[in-house]
Design brief:
Integrase_catalytic, alpha+beta, DNA-binding, Double Stranded RNA Binding Domain, Phage_int_M, DNA polymerase, domain 1, elongated, hpI Integrase, Chain A, four-stranded antiparallel β-sheet, 3 domains
Amino acid sequence: MPKKAKEMTAKEVRDLKPRIGKDGKPYNTYYAVGGVSGLNLEAAATGGKSWVLRVAVGVQLDTKGNPKLDKNGYPKPQRQSIGLGGFPDVSLSQARDKAREIKEKIAQGINPLEEKKAARAALIAAQRRNVTFREVAKDCYDVKAAEFKNEKHSLQWWRTLEVNAFPSIGDMPINEISTDDVVRTLKPKWDSTPDAADRIRQRMGAVFEYALTGDKPIRTNPVNPARWENLKGKLPAFQAVKKKSGKANRHHPALPYKDMPRLMADLRSKHANGAKALQFAILTGARSEEVRKATWDEIDLTEKTWHLSAERMKADRPHTVPLSDAAVELLRTMPKKTPGNLIFGSAQGKVMSDNTLSKLIKDMHAADLKRGGDGYTDPKQDNRIATPHGTARSSFKEWARKATRYPDEYSEIALAHVNTDETRSAYARDELLAERRPMMQEWARYCYQGDQSESEDAEKEAG
């Protein structure tokens, strides 16, 4: 039989210290304190003391799940060390009581370690059930922040929830939020500003989706209450509301391509960076942001190309633009040594605002009307004033389709649209750079000179 330890007193326990090794340094020392077999006080080398119950819990198992046997054929006990807390927070008498309770449970077939693990898991589950929408949104945002292309979009995403969702559901446990709560959040904006309301819905949906992800989802209710299929019948149909509010999907107003020479002549008469940036956007079919953030290191004037990295493109893939002679000539008029290496920087040396180009067209439109001209509008959209995006891209696309015989994928690649098998395969090769070059050269010639065949026909008729 194992030797029975002497029952120590509280004073004796208090006076226990770690033993000193041969090297003269203290080491962690276990002392049997008696009263309950297996109860020890660990005197740590660092000076701390804690209670440890060394006890057999079940039996040892082999890899097949069978009990391991000793030399006498008996199952080998599985010895465990169970912490009972630190001393003096847990006194000697309390440690003995805890040890007796644990041994009693073991005698009843209860594994105290598994019980403790289950209790901890239940506590965590209860805490997870009480996690608020705001807390989950913060965790979701921390993950999504790496996906945003710039700081502005990152702040907009969070601000949308902060202003529109948190006041109504921010402090609610995410498990308790229903579709009715989402409807209550969206309703104030759904009828008046449907686009804004749908962005709120989508970002709320991303938070719920985050809470539903993983093998231990935070939200145990499997329904994402911000998904549109779960809101049908509780909110008016999105497109119907947009149409009723006069905000149905419309393209960016674009100038008819036949009016492009008139606009380009007007732009050429101006010397501000905004006018040159808009000319360059039109000549290249590029998006406003791509032009406004263009830098000299992206330009190869010898090869007459403009190389944009994947990070600069909406489609997240590199894009190369063959530059026409007119585009190269325009670039040669721009200063090379600029703040941030920007080609079309603002007067303050920063990235030009998108509003600069929008205001430019509006001012040119007003001035042309004042001169008795037709202005710069899109007749297909109730004569709304043309936008930089529509004019630079939609006008080019209309010209390519109606006035040329170039294959459609040429202009699609020029616009960095990768939405068909043809354009995908072309991108996989060389972006049809050589094939697109004469198209861009012809587009530049049209922008500044118009349709030469029409001019020749007019001269013949006059003659």
